[in-house]
Specification:
alpha+beta, Purple Acid Phosphatase, chain A, domain 2, 3 domains, 761 residues, eight-stranded antiparallel sheet, 44 strands, disordered N terminus, 5'-nucleotidase,  domain 2
């Protein structure tokens, strides 16, 4: 037997020896179950009786097969058909350097002609590429996908497999170089004949043709569907979930229906999330410490989620109650003899560690076996979580670098037989300009780009959140290989679907075959899920008793951002109104200026009546709660004018932050001029000038009395100057109560205007 057959045997033995060892890449040696069919070791002359088709275009010479014609009618077939999982291979003893078609044929429906149906794996030597084609009547010739770059030299083995699942794989010397899905071809799951077809390749010399049925395929492909969402924030009730491109979308009842719809027909499906499932929630869930949110997520059959920064709003101890169950330590059980059961799904917190023990409060990863393949999920919040939540609840806990944490866990998972790895990360980015098409990835920027670049290439997919913005990306990993990176907006408005193809031999993800898509949770076309409706019905009486009480009136909509969108980088009517309320509430403590962080303003005040029927312009307790759900405490303390200017400059966030600029709400009488430069998703410069209080220029050396909530007072959102103030900080009461009292006192309330900050070009 000649050199290449010996090479084939070595590859075969190696394949059998290594079959139980997970491989880092998709090496694919020729399998048991196929064999050499014709070594062409015989007398010079005709091809012989084992072949059919246009045999006269080929000739045996010197124990090899010579192509003797440039004729297009030169397709030949092995005499016997093979099964639906089949392979063909041949050695190029001499490649025709200028030929555009040196082809392997698979699953030919006849051994006389390609016209009854065939798969053609075409090598174009001039273009140095392989193409996959099929023929059937009446479609004709159909090409699948882009060219597969490849160069074959004399002595190389050209191989291809056509599998019963519709995949066609192309090999060079036993190494997979590309694959294509031909399931749109009528005969993709049938058996057939294998053969050769060399056109315009006169002078090419072939050796060692083989193939056959893969009686015991060395691997199987397993389809795993991942359904993902993020930043649910307790939006169980559908009317509070917002819109996408003007279409009503989201809410727990409809999100659950969409998940069920997408699961249909998928044998292997997991539902995962990227944090902020609780916290910052509307009153329906927030009034009850997000127990309704967790119960709705249980009903949706969520499997696993990372923590996000809002999971820590009420501290680590309360997060553990959310996971494990039990009654609230202050408010107790909401239903007699029915303690809160906790989450059926698992929260993950890989990069949250105890300062003393180094242990995580929740597991760092979760492993699920899918048809024999172990899939690992690493869950993390953003490293900057300690700047986003009240310090008291996370005292004694460190938040570590996201990429370093995940990379350290890769060998830990590998040691347990896990090579398919997905990261669930509560950190994200944005398209340019935001929000962008929810299935696009235009000008993606922000922390997620940096993190993706730093993650170990063995991590196969990245499901993200935090920015409340959608994207569906395939980004290169550190080794230059494609990696899916998704985000699903917020409030259940979008579901990301990842179809990961798992290779049972390597236990890894076939990224070349995997894909992702974002789906709109369109309330106009979906029916509410009765399972979630039952959760709502359970809590509705408690909510109605607590939440429907009127607290004030408004004359028109009072919104976040410009038109009610969650744009935290612009002056906001509602942010300014809350600052006015906080200044008024703490005036007895001498407050002169109040600031409100935009991330603490969670909903708009809308003039039109809600479905509850409170009436146009009426603000209920639940609506006020939805605006300010965190239960913060107001703090009043002295600051110098220079410190106040420093705070205004810190609206320009550090490079790599999820949002480049956070525009503080400011109280009546405080004005200034602002100029910023935003480049590549980062705030690169900020200018604060003409700062005045009640028309008088701010004196950097003078002292002023300022009110903020305890989140800002602790330096949250990178407003670190507040934290450096050493003077006593007077307690000004609950922020929501201050807002409610303000509405009750000054109703009807109108928007205060977006004219306190003069933005310069």
């Amino acid at each position: 037997m000649k050199k290449n057959v010996r090479l084939f045997s070595i590859l075969l033995i190696a394949s059998l020896l290594l079959s139980a060892i997970p491989a880092a890449s998709a090496q694919t040696d020729y399998p048991a179950g196929v064999s050499l069919l014709d070594d062409f070791n015989r007398a010079n002359g005709a091809l012989g009786r084992d072949w059919t088709g246009n045999k006269s275009k080929y000739r045996i010479m010197n124990n090899q097969l010579f192509v003797r014609s440039n004729d297009a009618n030169s397709d030949i077939y092995w005499k016997e058909p093979f099964g639906a999982d089949q392979e063909a291979f041949v050695t190029f003893a001499k490649v025709s350097k200028k030929a555009t078609e040196q082809n392997l044929l698979l699953k030919a429906q006849s051994n006389k002609t390609w016209g009854d149906g065939v798969i053609e794996v075409l090598y174009d030597a001039k273009m140095q590429a392989v193409q996959v084609w099929t023929w059937e009547w009446p479609k004709g010739w159909v090409k699948y996908g882009d060219d597969i770059p490849a160069t074959f030299s004399d002595g190389d083995v050209f191989g291809a497999r056509a599998l019963a699942n519709g995949m066609v794989e192309v090999y060079r010397n036993g190494e997979l170089i590309g694959s294509r899905d031909v399931t749109t071809w009528r005969f993709y799951d049938k058996g057939g004949y294998i053969g050769l077809w060399f056109i315009g390749a006169r002078g090419a010399v072939l050796d060692d043709f083989g193939g056959g049925t893969l009686l015991d395929p060395p691997y199987q492909l397993v389809q795993l569907q991942l359904l993902a969402f993020n930043d649910y924030h307790g939006h169980v009730m559908p009317n509070e979930a917002g819109t996408v491109d003007g279409i009503p979308a989201g809410g727990g009842e409809y999100l659950s229906t969409k998940l069920n719809e997408l699961r249909a027909g998928n044998e292997h499906s997991l539902t995962v999330a990227a944090g902020d499932l609780i916290g910052g929630s509307p009153a329906f869930s927030g009034l009850f410490h997000d127990e309704p949110s967790v119960e709705s997520l249980n009903a949706m059959m969520l499997d696993v989620s990372s923590v996000g920064n809002h999971e820590f709003d009420e501290g680590v101890t309360e997060l553990l109650r959310m996971q494990n169950g039990g009654c609230h330590p202050v408010d107790g059980c909401y239903f007699p003899n029915e303690p809160f059961a906790g989450a059926d799904f698992q929260w993950l917190a890989a990069n949250v560690v105890n300062e003393t023990t180094g242990e995580t409060p929740l597991p760092p990863y979760w492993i699920k076996e899918v048809d024999g393949v172990k899939v690992g999920f690493i869950g993390m919040t953003l490293e900057a979580t300690d700047t986003l939540v009240a310090a008291a609840g996370i005292q004694g806990w460190d938040f570590l670098d996201e990429a370093e944490t995940a990379n350290a866990l890769v060998p830990v998972l590998n040691a347990q037989g896990v090579d398919a790895i997905v990261v669930l990360l509560h950190e994200g980015g944005s398209q340019t300009p935001p929000p962008g098409d929810f299935n696009a990835c235009v000008g993606i920027s922000g922390p997620i780009v940096t993190i993706n670049n730093a993650l170990d290439p063995e991590i196969d997919a990245l499901i993200t959140g935090h920015t409340h913005l959608p994207y569906n990306c395939v980004l290169p990993d550190a080794a230059g290989q494609p990696r899916i990176v998704t985000s699903a907006y917020s409030y259940g408005r979008i579901v990301s679907e990842l179809q990961l193809v798992l290779d049972k031999r390597t236990n890894d993800v076939r990224r070349d075959l995997s894909a992702s898509q974002n789906h709109l949770v369109d309330r106009t076309t979906l029916t509410p899920d009765p399972v979630i409706a039952a959760v709502i019905a359970k809590w509705q009486p408690l909510f109605a008793a607590a939440g429907n009480t009127p607290v004030g009136t408004i004359t028109t909509d009072i919104n976040r951002g410009v038109n009610g969108e969650d744009n935290r980088g612009v002056e906001s009517n509602l942010g300014n109104l809350i600052a006015d309320a906080q200044l008024w509430a703490t005036s007895s403590n001498g407050a002169q200026i109040a600031f409100m962080n935009p991330g603490g303003v969670r909903a708009n005040l809308t003039y039109l009546s809600s479905p509850v029927g409170e009436g146009d312009g009426v603000v209920t307790f639940s609506e006020a709660f939805a605006v300010q759900p965190f239960g913060n405490t107001l703090k009043t303390f002295p600051m110098t004018g220079a410190q106040i200017i420093s705070v205004l400059q810190q609206q320009c966030q550090p490079a790599g932050s999820s949002r480049p600029f956070l525009h503080l709400g400011v109280s009546q009488g405080f004005t200034y001029d602002l100029a910023t430069t935003i480049v590549g998703g980062n705030c690169t410069s900020v200018s604060i000038t003409n700062v005045k209080l009640n028309g008088v220029p701010l004196d950097p050396a003078a002292t002023y009395v300022v009110t903020v909530n305890n989140f800002l007072a602790d330096g949250g959102d990178n407003f670190t100057t507040f934290r450096t103030v050493t003077a006593p900080k007077l307690d000004g009461g609950n922020d929501l109560q201050a807002f409610i009292n303000f509405l009750a006192t000054f109703s009807p309330v109108s928007p205060p205007g977006r004219d306190r900050v003069n933005e310069l070009p």
